[in-house]
Design brief:
Helix content: 25-40%
CATH architecture of the largest domain: 3-Layer(aba) Sandwich
Shape: globular
Number of domains: 2
Radius of gyration: 22 Å
Distance between the termini: 39 Å
Strand content: 15-25%
Number of helices: 15
Largest sheet: 6 strands, parallel
CATH class of the largest domain: Alpha Beta
CATH superfamily of the largest domain: LarA, N-terminal domain
Amino acid sequence: MNGTSWKEIDIEYGKEYITVKVPPYCEILENKSAPPLARPREKIEEVLSNPVGTESMEKLIGSLKKDPSKIKVAITVSDNTRPVPYNGESEQGILLPLLRRLEKARIKKGNIKIIVGTGTHLPTSSEWKKEAFGEFILNNYEIIDHDCNALDLISIGRIRGVEVKINKEFITADIRIATGLVEPHFMAGVSGGRKAICPGLVNLEATYVFHGVDFMDHPNATNMVLVNNPCHEFALEVAKRAKVDFIVNCTINGNGDLTGVFAGHFEKAHLQAVRMLKDTCVVHCSHEYDIVLTQGGKVAVNHYQAAKAAYATIPIVKKGGIVILIAHNSDKNPVGKDEYRRVLRVLKEKGPGKFTEYIKSKNWRFVPDQWQVQKWDQFFKKIGFFDNLIYCTTNIPPHELEELPGKSGYLFAKEEALTCDRMVQNAIYYAVDNFRQKLKREPAMAFIKEGPYTVPLLNLPA
């Protein structure tokens, strides 16, 4: 198969793109056009001056009736799994305008703590902090990573039967600010808003509830759903008790450009962003597909995060269909933590669709990161076979990728040309030929251009 009549497409792979060919009938599923803000810095300043549902930052500070030089401010920011435009040197950077306003309000730089809401993720590197925030912010403000096991976390009471504790630096501040990116999230519906606090700044026990077996198995714990979503409801209650004073959230397009900035009340401003997101990221499909090609986006720094792209294909891939997933996996731990690897082995041992049933038994003891494996299990339950996922990356060593559920992309790359584009192209040839032989016709195929940032939904005719 040479695909001479096929059309070329570009697929995001890390900071670059690879080019491959797909059949002419392959449907391109992509978000509605979201133009970048023409004057992003002006828009940021505008929303900071006119926040949604609350007073401006300057008025909030004034309402404390306290010497500004003694006021402590905590700002939680996202970690390396979210491409939030923070960088101080950029016109699109959402953090520096906020810091400048605090400075004008006579808040001392030394009284401002920037806390990376890592949740249970690994600490972020100094190299990432430099790239994410820029040298000015890095050199002038204290930036720390949250530790979900820290002994000095402070309790905000019991929620859903568990004592919830919050990062000390955040909860003891006079002004508490949350920032982040609003994008589809396969558990909490959408990211941003309350999620910066839970799971970003909570204790491990609270994370176990947020990511619990029953929460993960709930039909509403899925992309773009907030109503009756247990993850959303739990995180919202945590954020309310943590008394978040102000948020700055944003939306971006596929190029990483700012398309919207939302500031103000942590719930009202967040919902404003969610409404905009729904208008751009939901794609309605009239039928399921035999083959779905997708990519992990910037979030897929490791295999753990790439689950989001796989999960997003569930509504539109046929039972027994093939999913080809391209993920850059640039993290120093390109698979994930040891617990994640261990639980993946259990998934592989039990088989597609059997993992969730197994971890509900009395014999199972909760393991960190099992929630992500549970979502992988829901995906494999839909496609039916581990080998129906072709996982393409050049950053997980071949022997490690072979141990993970799915078919290794390395099987489709010749050693003398071990490149991702060659790997993906041969995987596409394989999948198309496989269905041609089985179906005696051309297979239905789709390419989800923005990967996990697109929410394809199946709308069957009445």
